[in-house]
Design goal:
Distance between the termini: 25 Å
Order of helices and strands: EEEEEE
Helix content: under 10%
Structural class: mainly beta
Oligomer: single chain
Radius of gyration: 12 Å
C-alpha cells in the first residue's frame, strides 16, 4: 500500500486476482480497484492475498477478486471476477 492508501499488486492475473478489471499479467505495480471500480481504497483495515484471489477489508466490508469456482469470494456465486465484489454472509 502506498502513502495515498492505494493497494498496488503485480504478477499473475489469470483469474483476475489483481483486482484491476483485467486478466492480463502485470510485471510492474498496478493499483487495485475497489468494488466501485475506482482506485480510492482509503479506509483499508486488512489485506489478504493468495495465489488466485485478493481480498481487502475496507470500511467494514470484505471485497474480493479472482478465482471463485468454489465460491471462495463469498458472494454466493461461482463466477471468477477481475473487479472486487463485496463478500456477503460473513
Amino acid at each position: 500500500m502506498n502513502a495515498g492508501g492505494d493497494i498496488q499488486y503485480w504478477g499473475y492475473s489469470t483469474t483476475g486476482q489483481l483486482g484491476i478489471n483485467s486478466n492480463i499479467n502485470q510485471n510492474t505495480a498496478v493499483k487495485m480497484l475497489n468494488s466501485s471500480g475506482t482506485t480510492s481504497n482509503l479506509g483499508i483495515q486488512n489485506i489478504a492475498v493468495g495465489g488466485y484471489f485478493s481480498c481487502i477489508l475496507i470500511n467494514g466490508q470484505i471485497q474480493c477478486t479472482g478465482l471463485n469456482s468454489n465460491g471462495e469470494l463469498g458472494n454466493f456465486s461461482t463466477e471468477n471476477t477481475s473487479l472486487p465484489v463485496t463478500s456477503i454472509g460473513f
